[in-house]
Automatic annotation (TrEMBL):
This is Sulfate/molybdate ABC transporter ATP-binding protein. PANTHER family: SPERMIDINE/PUTRESCINE IMPORT ATP-BINDING PROTEIN POTA, SPERMIDINE_PUTRESCINE IMPORT ATP-BINDING PROTEIN POTA. GO terms for cellular component: ATP-binding cassette (ABC) transporter complex. InterPro entries: AAA+_ATPase, ABC_SmlMolc_Importer, ABC_transporter-like_ATP-bd, ABC_transporter-like_CS, CysA_C, Mo/tungstate-bd_C_term_dom, P-loop_NTPase, Sulph_transpt1. Residues 3-237 form the ABC transporter domain. Keywords: ATP-binding, Nucleotide-binding, Sulfate transport, Translocase, Transport.
């Protein structure tokens, strides 16, 4: 089912946890809500679930206004970061819980519930685990069961709040790939909260970037990464350098006059050039603009140079795609550069 959010606001004292948020999620989409701590991700998910009432605005499931409905009436599936399985129930009983606790006229019979539990155990690849108790499962297995339990009621939407947040990095990566495959099988409309940009980019059909209760950008992972709509999104998604300069009649100027780049659509005044470390090309000729090498960092998979422009206090980084017999530049020397992909934004007013 599709989901529409219209002008949703929620305040706590003088904090706007959600500030007039509009969002459309198509049926079958997997959408990540991404943003730093306190940006409003969990609040948005909880308002959609019916766990929190908004101050104003509407939540629509299909054409139906669900704003005033309870969690149960909305029939949503919810998975929390911390395993919320019932300890005293077996895995199978946990999965069956949502169906068993339905009012009698909507409750499937025992055989149907047992069949559904088997199907779900198979779907989350834990067929042998129905008789176990939650304490006999690993963290990753518990979250797969929590997901099976959320899916059991055939929810209108599936809402996941950092479901892998408490797991270690390797298990997280395995589980997010597993979740993507599962989503392809079920086609369930899903909203997924994360503060991990890699998780969002790898998993989601579309990513919603939140900041201070507002949507900064909505787009496919590619759009968000390649065409960030603001300095905030550029900085938040992946590694970014910000170089100080000015825009003057459609030209960005920095480093005295040495660095000049077209900036047609940026208003005149203080501005910043945003460029990722791997989007800076080293020029072996004495063309382009030049920067001083401040430090050389060897990493497992790359070499990163720390560079500085004339007159700028803050160094920036360049990833050097080094060949085995390349000679690394010396500290204090200068190298020629060319940004291959970049964005220029007016400097934030403080
Ligand atoms: N019950 C509450 N009482 C007061 N303020 C709250 C409450 N819940 C959330 N807030 C505030 O609302 C804002 C949004 O919080 P929310 O939990 O939605 O952010 P988040 O993006 O999910 O953050 P995190 O990644 O840390 O979970 C924050 O400033 C938070 O302090």
């Amino acid at each position: 089912m599709d989901l529409k959010i219209r002008q949703l606001s929620k305040h706590y004292a003088n904090v706007a946890a959600l500030d007039a948020v509009d969002l459309d999620v198509a049926s079958g989409e997997l959408v990540a809500l991404l943003g730093p701590s306190g940006s409003g991700k969990t609040t948005l998910l909880r308002v959609i679930a019916g766990l929190l009432s908004p101050d104003s605005g509407r939540v629509l499931f299909g054409e139906d206004d669900a704003t005033r409905l309870s969690l149960r009436e909305r029939n949503v599936g919810f998975v929390f970061q911390h395993y919320a399985l019932f300890k005293h129930m077996t895995v199978a009983e946990n999965i069956a819980f949502g169906l068993r606790s339905r009012p009698r006229r909507r409750r499937p019979d025992k055989t149907t519930i047992a069949r559904r539990v088997e199907e779900l155990l198979k779907l989350v690849q834990l067929q042998e685990f129905g008789g176990r108790y939650p304490e006999q499962l690993s963290g990753g297995q518990k979250q797969r069961i929590a997901l099976a339990r959320a899916l059991a009621i055939d929810p209108t939407v599936l809402l996941l709040d950092e479901p892998f947040g408490a797991l270690d990095a390797k298990v997280r990566v395995e589980l997010r790939r597993w979740l993507r495959r599962l989503h392809e099988q079920t086609g369930q409309t899903t909203l997924f909260v994360t503060h991990d940009q890699e998780e969002a980019l790898e998993l989601a059909d579309r990513v919603v970037v939140l900041k201070d209760g507002r949507i900064e950008q909505v787009g496919t992972p590619d759009e968000i990464y390649r065409e960030p709509a603001s300095a905030f999104v550029f900085d938040f998604i992946g590694r970014a350098n910000a170089l100080e300069g000015r825009v003057d009649s459609g030209t960005f100027v920095a480093d005295g006059q040495a660095l000049r780049l077209p900036a047609e659509h940026v208003v005149d005044g203080a501005a910043q050039l945003y460029v990722r470390p791997h989007d800076l090309a080293v020029l072996h000729a004495e063309t382009g603009w030049s920067a001083e090498v401040v430090a050389v960092h060897r990493r497992a998979d790359r070499i990163t140079l720390e560079l500085r422009l004339h007159g700028q206090a803050k160094p920036f980084e360049l990833d050097w795609p080094i060949a085995p017999d390349d000679v690394l530049p010396e500290i204090g020397s200068r190298i020629g550069l060319e940004p291959q992909r970049y964005r220029i934004f007016p400097a934030a007013r403080t």
